[in-house]
Write a structure and sequence with these properties.
Blueprint: H1 3-8, E1 14-19, E2 21-34, E3 41-54, H2 55-65, E4 70-76, H3 81-92, E5 95-100, E6 106-114, E7 120-127, H4 137-149, E8 152-156, H5 165-171, E9 178-181, H6 189-193, E10 198-199, H7 203-210, H8 215-226, E11 229-233, E12 239-242, E13 249-251, H9 264-276, H10 282-297, H11 307-324
Parallel strand pairs: 1-4, 1-8, 2-6, 4-5, 8-9, 9-10, 10-11
Antiparallel strand pairs: 2-3, 6-7, 11-12, 12-13
Length: about 325
């Protein structure tokens, strides 16, 4: 099956996302002077805006790439205004939410200051709990039902306490349709990730997981040790695929000149997951994931490309390749 045919089948998919839900808050303003109290800029705040982060951003990405899909997300929030923002944005994108509100909502607040030219990121403040969390019994039953119905399950692990061995006790029989964005800071990552269909670490994460110094040795090592396919994110160099048969397949991409990596991994894993519901080819899924990430790195902050944007980009690349062929 060709890449274009795969993405034409993205709509109407059943996908479950579980992970660390986050709200990205942007506090924007102007820098006109230095504080007399300390050598730091004074930000005159003019605006606040919000975007999805973490597993919430993955859910938005999946929903945008799978129009009329049945997209569900489960995670932890608080009984606070931030949770209301997050829940509304998810539901406005036709995403079903299954939220345990017995914790504080994770917020990443970025302070953006403008003196001349484009706004500069001057500070980030994190409001978060990172201890292990446990879903209540009612939500556990619902998650099990959703997992059974879903074509693929995405675990978005930021090591903030959602992805635990307790959760995997519910999902263990569904590992063959599970794709995980991993975090080696999760103390139980080996037992949690072992035997899942795919993990998608970046270069730093694969080295940390393996204890090795070479990313390709590390990818092969982790694939063997955890009995999982590895799709290694290489930033502007694309991806490398380590299937269970021991091969290494490099999947290059076109490097963008002006890029910001925030949220690119979320777009990549979303496109990968949808691809794997249609076709079992890991390298074709990686090609599609690379294209989705390219659309995101051109934007400031997190971004969720649409199916039409992805289709257009792939068509453009196909046309370029056709006319450049001898």
């Amino acid at each position: 099956m060709e890449v274009q045919e795969i993405i034409n089948n993205f709509p109407r998919k059943k996908v479950l996302i579980i992970g660390d839900l986050m709200l990205d808050k942007y506090t924007e303003g102007y820098i006109e002077r230095i504080s007399p109290e300390a050598p730091v800029p004074v930000l005159r705040v003019s605006n606040h805006s919000y975007k999805m982060g973490g597993a919430a951003n993955v859910a938005i990405n999946v929903a945008n790439l799978s129009p009329n899909g049945n997209i569900s997300v489960a995670g932890f929030v608080g009984d606070d205004p931030e949770a209301s923002y997050l829940k509304k944005m998810l539901e406005d994108n036709n995403i079903q939410t299954y939220l345990d509100s017995d914790h504080s909502t994770i917020v990443k607040e970025r302070f953006m200051g403008k003196s001349s030219g484009h706004p500069q990121h001057i500070l980030r403040a994190d409001y978060e709990e990172d201890h292990k969390k446990t879903f209540n019994d009612e939500l556990k039953d619902k998650i099990r039902d959703l997992a059974l119905e879903s074509e693929i399950i995405i675990l978005s692990d930021y090591a903030k306490g959602t992805i635990t061995t307790d959760l995997l006790n519910i999902l263990d029989s569904f590992k063959n349709k599970m794709i995980i964005d991993p975090k080696p800071k999760n103390p139980d990552f080996r037992s949690i990730y072992r035997g899942c269909h795919v993990i998608t670490p970046n270069k730093r994460e694969i080295l940390e997981m393996s204890g090795l110094n070479n990313i390709f040795d590390a990818g092969a090592n982790i694939s063997r040790e955890l009995n999982t396919n590895v799709i290694l994110k290489l930033g502007g160099d694309g991806t490398a695929v380590f299937p269970l048969n021991g091969e290494i397949i490099k999947v290059p991409t076109i490097k963008e000149t002006n890029f910001e990596e925030t949220g690119a991994g979320d777009s990549l894993i979303s496109a990968l997951a949808l691809s794997l519901t249609i076709n079992h080819s890991l390298d074709k899924a990686a090609i599609i994931g690379n294209h989705a990430a390219r659309l995101t790195v051109k934007k400031i902050g997190t971004y969720a490309p649409t199916l039409e944007e992805l289709r257009k980009l792939i068509n453009e690349e196909n046309e370029k390749n056709r006319f450049s062929s001898p």
